[in-house]
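Aim 2 progress update. The chain analyzed this quarter is reproduced below.
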Amino acid sequence: MPNLSTQVTSAHRYTAVAIALHWLLGMAVLAMFAVGIYMTDLPFSPLRLKLYNWHKWAGVTFLVLTAVRLLWRLSHRPPALPLAIAVAMPPWQARTYHATHHLFYILFFLVPLLGWSYSSAAGFPIVWFGQIALPDLLPVNKEWAEVIKPLHKLSALALMGLAVLHIGAAIKHQWLERDGLLLRMLPGRN
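Predicted structure tokens:
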């Protein structure tokens, strides 16, 4: 397949703000998932409590950044795919491309909101960065907490699965198809 990366122009690139939010949220997803998996296997200890608090703070921060990203996306139309890439992409890939982005936004809100709801129902209020007491989303209810906890975990696993699919598609486009699609989201390029 010919190298189409020269056809990705500045008109096809995302804005610097969109690029920064993309990479920041992407790294945050990976870090929060890793910490979430690690902390659940720890015995009760100061380290476990510290990691749970960090995870909650990161989750709320992630939720705020997701809202910023969505507002940016709604006010700044994403760039069109370069014509050569759009024509070469099978219809099922185009549908998957759009569906994946919609699912990301759903899960970007759902995962932290379920975590916050679980924390509230379990009776563990969130004090953001140890300074700002956030309102509980639900009243304390241990039965609800037991229902919400696995939903938070399953939605986080779904988000990680989607992230793996997204990364795999980026690798495929960059190194197998060599179409330059990844250039649209790399920082510091024209």
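Residues 142-176 form the longest helix (35 residues). The chain has a mean pLDDT of 92. These observations will guide the mutagenesis experiments scheduled for the next reporting period.
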